[in-house]
Specification:
Elements lengths: L5 E3 L6 H5 L48 E3 L4 E4 L5 E3 L8 H10 L13 H5 L44 E7 L10 E6 L4 E6 L21 E2 L9 E3 L4 E4 L4 E4 L9 H9 L14 H5 L8 H4 L16 E7 L11 E6 L4 E5 L7 E5 L6 E5 L27 E2 L1
Antiparallel strand pairs: 1-2, 2-3, 3-4, 4-8, 5-6, 6-7, 9-10, 10-11, 11-17, 12-13, 13-16, 14-15
Length: 401
Amino acid sequence: MTGAPMVHRGVVALAVAACLGCGGGDRWSLAGTGQRACYGTSGPAACPAPGAPLFGQDAQHPGPDLRYSDNGDGTVTDLVTGLTWTRALGTKVTWEEARARAGTLRVGGRSGWRLPSIGELYSLIDFGGAFGPTADGSTPFIDTGAFEFAYAPDTGTLPGQRFFDVQVWSSTEYVGRIMHGDEAVFGVNFADGRIKAYPVLQPSPPGQPPGPPAVMYARFVAGNPAYGTAAYSAGADGTVRDEVRRLTWQRADDGVQRTWADALAYCEGLTLGGADDWRLPNAKELQSLVDYSRAPAVTGTAAIDPAFEVSNIESYAWSSTTLPDGPPDHLGVRAVYVAFGRALGWMEEPPGSGHWELLDVHGAGAQRGDLKEGDPADYPRGFGPQGDDVRVRNFARCVRP
């Protein structure tokens, strides 16, 4: 494609020039989530009034719109973050191949490409998407007007390939180990709206030699190396200020695990540090607190910046963002959480044995979805193909401007 830049989401082209300096100063804008609809506990719903149940969800505290400029040369510039991306998805490669390719890549007449950090890659996720039972019933969690995307065929070169096997590598290694000691790297799946740690080698049964290198997609980034940085300062009033993102956080969770509705209400009703305009953070705000150099099994701490306190190092924390997941009449049953502890799942080891183990399947720092309401006892082996731990009640850490 050649010619003038094409700007998506209705932003005028001159905004490109205004944002190209985003990474040049000491501040940067956190990308929005793209979620503009409100949800009940089963599906889309009218946005509730202040004080009503479920008030305070993502769409009622909208961040910046997701805005991109197609530069017409195989690159796309994010008008919010100042990051420039390769538009094409390419073919599946190993993680080592992806890292090597970044150093030699020439797209749009430029070099200096890199494999993105998990925070950079996650900036592209769009929670206006939906993950249904089939590709035809799904909407990708990425702007397909700006970026190439295609669901995988149900059958292909890899045995057991599923339509949502379109995961994308980041450069962020998991400092812990998943499953039975597998080395892993974090990635984003823009088909199902999640972060997890993916094995670098294809899994093999316990006691067997490692499999060949795993392959996933890679999308490369350039510019704004400051994206993902923070500058935390703890106050004496129980708050932490991030001067880079211009957000103030509740320093410690209160030790209470709540349903999603109760977490929303708790933050909306919180008075702390002389302020009463607290809210439950959206998915990208919450994920920005993850410190990927930490993991409970390695550092004995939660995977969160040490400026913050957690009542349980194995904690999951709610966001205000719904994870649209399931058939149309159930798209609102789950909300996004971030695992600051190990992201656990029930796995039958070996398959068919009837012996189940609760393992670190996705890695500390993963983003998943938990039921907004219900009884965890109804899910003794978790949910989904990797038995995601169902807790229903998770911690809340509130945020304000």
